[in-house]
Amino acid sequence: MPILSLQNISKKYGAVQALSGISFDVPAGSVFGVLGPNGSGKTTLLGIVTDVLKADTGSFTLFDKTPSATERRQIGTLLETPNFYHYLSAYKNLEISAAVKHRGKNDIARVLEICGLTQRQHSAFKTYSLGMKQRLAIASVLLGDPDVLILDEPTNGLDPSGIAEVRELVRKLADSGKTIILASHLLDEVEKVCTHVAILRSGKLLLSGPVDTVISRNDFVEMSTVNLPALQAVMLKYPGCTAAVIQGNIVKASFTDLPNPEAINRYCAEQGIWLSYLQLRKKSLETAFLEITNISAS
Predict the structure, then answer these.
(1) H helices within 11-68, ranges in order?
(2) Cα 255–258–262 angle (5° rounding)?
(3) Could you give the CA distance from residue 176 to residue 201 in angstroms, rounded to a whole number?
(4) Mapping DSSP to helix (H, G, I), strand (E, B) and coil, where does residue 15 land?
(5) CB atoms within 10 A of CB 74
(6) Which of 176, 97, 100, 169 is closest to 135 using CA atoms?
(7) Mind listing the pLDDT tens digit for each residue in 137-184?
(8) pTM, rounded to two decimals
(9) What torsion, rounded to 10 degrees, do the Cα atoms 192, 197, 200, 205 define?
(10) Nearest to 138 by CA among 106, 107, 169
(11) Is pLDDT of 218 > 90?
């Protein structure tokens, strides 16, 4: 049973089509990344799921049910950074959050510990680093122990240290069994923490599914020899080779399956071609993403 199932969700703002027929499922226990550049419809989609916005057409289910107050209480949401009081401590700020959300104060110590803030719980919010402030925001989301977390750009605006802190927290929460839906425009974030992904562009869904399947990054081989055209011709006859392209002083060969460098070297030698260079490489995440979205790298 998917935690969240979207069916043909569309939303328009005047003449702008923010979302167009979006459908995908979020598996239980996954870290599901909603990936796309700014303006792709990520925040609008999360706003609809959290009942901040209404879809023009389409529907969705939560926990295999039409969403009601009961289902929504099982979701913790961070669509924007909470307005914490700078002069109050983390603990006092969470007391206010708990009261607003009708959550018990007895949960504050637990969420502070999860987010690594117990030692600084009585320090004023204004003394916190950017990463600590975002971890406190996530602590607020965790009040009441929701089963599902929805985080919109949780590392946006953070320095490298803060990004690392928040990523580690997301991994920790995922390991505890939470389902996490995370919107981001950062490829690196998706690669490091997400198990599944939906890729949006201009309000349209391009692909969705497991990260390794959706953002295919097949290995390829770089080779060099004295006669590059001859090497190219030989590799085009190699079983499973789908392409062999001369780039500068190398031949770049792609394959349907994982290539075996030793077998390739032996094959070339049997054809009278002696390789001076052979290197197995993986397509960059950026290249794979650009291929999906049909955006020129230039």
Answers:
(1) 42-49
(2) 95
(3) 32
(4) coil
(5) 15
(6) 169
(7) 999 999 999 999 999 999 988 898 999 999 999 999 999 999 999 998
(8) 0.78
(9) 170
(10) 169
(11) no
